[in-house]
Amino acid sequence: FASDAGMVLNFIKADKTADFEAVMAKLKEALQKSTKPERKQQAMGWKVFKSPDPAAGGNVLYVFVIDPNVKGADYSVANILAEGFPAAEVSTIYTQYAGAYASGQNIVNLTLIADLGK
Predict the structure, then answer these.
(1) Beta bridge partners of 12
(2) Can you state the percent helix, strand and coil of the chain, rounding each to 5?
(3) Is the terminal CB of the chain with fewer CB neighbours within 10 Å at N or C?
(4) Are 30 and 81 in contact (CB under 8 A)?
(5) pTM of the entire structure?
(6) Rounded CA separation 64/117 (Å)
(7) What are the C-alpha distances in Å from 117 to residues 2, 44, 114?
(8) Cα→Cα distances 102→47, 55, 105, Å
(9) What are the backbone dihedrals phi and psi of residue 99, each rounded to the nearest 5 degrees, phi first?
(10) pLDDT for 64-111, tens place per residue?
(11) End-to-end CA distance of the chain, in Å?
């Protein structure tokens, strides 16, 4: 992300939500067990939300909210999984992850203009 924070909109097939959520659990595990300090920082600012409302085409919207962004860190799910698990397992996890998508991701960079709580 090139700014202070970001969001990633993920449109997931309705019948693949369990697969997507299983991959998110693996992502969390990879971030938590990483020996890289930036991965721990990323985990602290990365939340995954699921919309209770149906998205276009009957798909399900999951939103990654990343605040604060760890400047210069790699947020690629595939790369983080590859660091955390053996290649054979990553291949299976990535197939599950990619197969859950109805369409690609929309990445939204966010620049803070006002913090109304301070």
Answers:
(1) 60, 101
(2) 45, 30, 25
(3) C
(4) yes
(5) 0.91
(6) 22
(7) 24, 20, 9
(8) 21, 11, 10
(9) -70, -15
(10) 999 999 998 999 999 999 999 999 999 999 999 999 999 888 989 998
(11) 24
